[in-house]
Automatic annotation (TrEMBL):
One of its GO terms (molecular function) is glutamate-cysteine ligase activity. This is Glutamate--cysteine ligase. It holds the Pfam family GCS2. It comes from the Bacteria. GO terms for biological process: modified amino acid biosynthetic process. Signal peptide: none annotated. InterPro entries: GCL_type2/YbdK_subfam (IPR050141), GCS2 (IPR006336), Gln_synth/guanido_kin_cat_dom (IPR014746), UCP012666 (IPR016602).
Length: 477
């Protein structure tokens, strides 16, 4: 979904031809799975990070066209709204240089973006939902100028027979109900997306483990407690995204409608091929943009997959040599709060997934339990209770501190990571954050509890702390 499209009005013939091309590419992809035609070399890592432009009052600034022109970097691209942009860190092997590479790359990109934003009289900030955002700001006038976003909006509404999108989120003490006649509510959600390129032989197991890890990842990275001035879930971004582009596609075995933003309905049994077959048969085409290129480039299949926003999404990519590879995109963590926090989150995910993959924990944790864990963690953050493979219920804090962080450290140490990096990111930052229960959501709620509902002051204090490059559990109030 990162590329621009040249056509925004589609005919019935466009949909028919696209479906035909999608079916041909899916058939070819099935041959690749059967022949194991994918890259088998070292595991590669990559990330995407979504950010906000704000003005001197910390309110959203709809100026990403000017901002992107100033930055002029292919690693910095547009997002759905004019308030947002996305940073892309190039892929890097899973080795001892990864922590420093991630930190250096993020610092370099953020410093460049901040400098150009300042020249415009703006600031950049990275958080799951911007606290100063108001519902009235999310209109089609604030949609980015790229045609693909406007076409996607029209087609999603058509798929709903032009019925409006209803946002209903219940917090512990507050609730929110709003109605949108476009998809712009989705622009309120900004995330850190973690990519993991893996060989076919391990792809299915890693994909399943990514679902199992979604609950602890949501809890430790929760950073979106407020939406339009209401305190809702610790990671309100999760239900907001699901409802903002809610287009039911098919019904799962439990009788639930499966939307295009989904945790899914089951583990894969044998291969990621199952997910791409489900894409073909379960999800109607939204953007029937036709390509003249070789089917082997999978343009139609990748565009279609890009309009299905699983929280853990398999991707087909290509290396410089043109050989295809498989990636898992983990979309659970929120953006922010700081570079050290985000690097710690990323390393924890890689370490925990390496630690759990040989044990195949989904054999002892049903998919329904993994799903329930995920939404409990999104709702309650580090206060959530989850079920684990023992069948016991435990605080998610206990699961992370006693099981997952030690396992992640062992797995990354076995991969050659420096003990100093593991101690700094996974013990001094992550374990301290979890033990104190001071993630981004906690800090934001504590600030409002101390100072009252001044969301501009909250955002300004958040921004000042973020600039100090210190982990969130050490932030002042």
């Amino acid at each position: 979904m990162g590329s621009e499209i040249t056509k925004t009005e589609f005919s019935a013939e466009d949909f028919r031809q696209f479906q035909q091309n999608l079916r041909k590419e899916t058939r070819l992809l099935m041959e690749w799975f059967a022949a194991d035609a994918f890259e088998k070399h070292e595991v590669m890592c990559g990330i995407e990070l979504e950010g906000w432009l704000v003005d001197s009052d910390c309110t959203p600034a709809a100026r990403n066209d000017e901002f992107l022109a100033r930055v002029n970097d292919p690693l910095v691209v547009a997002e759905l709204s004019k308030y947002n942009f996305e940073l892309n860190v190039p892929p890097h092997p899973l080795n001892r240089q990864l922590p420093e590479f991630l930190r250096t790359q993020l610092q370099t990109l953020l410093e460049s973006c901040s400098r150009h934003a300042r020249e415009m009289g703006c600031q950049t900030i990275f958080t799951g939902i911007l606290p100063t955002l108001q519902d009235r700001m999310l209109t089609l006038e604030s949609m980015s100028s790229m045609q693909r976003f406007h076409a996607l909006n029209r087609e999603i509404l058509k798929s709903r027979s032009l019925h409006p999108l209803k946002i209903h989120i219940e917090g512990a003490s507050e609730r929110l109900e709003v109605v949108h006649r476009d998809v712009m509510a989705e622009a309120a959600t900004t995330s850190l997306q973690i990519h993991f390129q893996v060989p076919l032989s391990k792809a299915a197991a890693f994909y399943n483990v990514a679902h199992v890890l979604s609950a602890p990842m949501a809890a430790l990275s929760a950073n979106s407690p407020f939406l339009f001035g209401r305190e809702l879930w610790d990671e309100t971004r999760i239900p907001l995204f699901e409802q903002a582009v809610n287009t039911p596609s098919f019904v799962d075995p439990a009788g639930r409608p499966v939307s295009r933003v989904t945790f899914g309905h089951d583990y894969v049994r044998e291969s990621l091929r199952e997910v791409f077959l489900e894409n073909l048969d379960g999800f109607p085409v939204l953007l029937p943009v036709l390509f003249d290129h070789d089917y082997a480039m999978m343009h139609h299949l990748r565009l279609h997959n890009g309009t299905i926003w699983r929280w853990n999404r398999p991707l087909i990519g290509f290396g410089d040599d043109g050989r295809p590879h498989l990636r898992i995109e983990h979309r659970v963590p929120a953006a922010g709060p700081s570079i050290p926090d985000m690097v710690a989150n990323i390393l924890f995910f890689y370490g925990a997934i390496l630690h759990l993959q040989p044990e195949v924990p989904q054999a002892e944790l049903t998919f329904e339990e993994a799903r329930a864990n995920f939404y409990a963690a999104a709702r309650s953050g580090l206060d959530a209770q989850v079920r684990w493979t023992s069948g016991d219920s435990m605080p998610v804090e206990t699961l992370i501190l006693q099981h997952l962080i030690p396992g992640a450290i062992l797995a990354l140490a076995a991969a050659g990571f420096r003990s100093s990096d593991l101690r700094y990111y996974l013990v001094d930052i992550l374990a301290q954050r979890v033990a104190s229960r001071r993630n981004g959501a906690w800090w934001q709620k504590a600030f409002i509890k101390k100072h009252g509902p001044d969301f501009r002051a909250l955002t300004q204090a958040y921004l000042e702390n973020q600039r100090r490059d210190t982990p969130v559990h050490e932030w002042s109030l």
